[in-house]
Amino acid sequence: MSTTPATVEQADRLNPRPTDQELEALANFRSALRKFLAFSEAAAADEGVTMQWYQALLVIKTFRGDGHISIGELADQLMIRDHSAAELVSRLDQAKLVKRKTDPSDRRRSLVIMTPSGGRCLDRLALLHLGELRKIKGAFTSLFQTGGEEF
Known about the structure:
Helices cover about 65% and strands about 10% of the residues. The protein is mainly alpha-helical.
């Protein structure tokens, strides 16, 4: 199917191109995001955990607020497969950052609970991450303030 110039012009009017300022904001955002992820990976490694472990601890701590999460729910939150989440929980359990317990309402399900050691690890990493985000927040907020209008 060929596109006529009139159709291209109509598409351009319906979908205007980003401004140079918007493109620069996107580039700055991606750069800041990459730097933050590199910081996060290094901070986690210094704590003796992986980025995925840190992300899992965040989810476990904050999910529903009732102190536990199922393997399937953790998998959904981390966007990984159930068996990958089960392996992740096994590694976290071996590191004594979480423990498993059988769901009293469904004995086929395992629930994941953070240990005090896991909570301390999460607290240390979260404080570092929050401090870093506060330092670089300008790169993130500038994306939403381009061209005098907000997204």
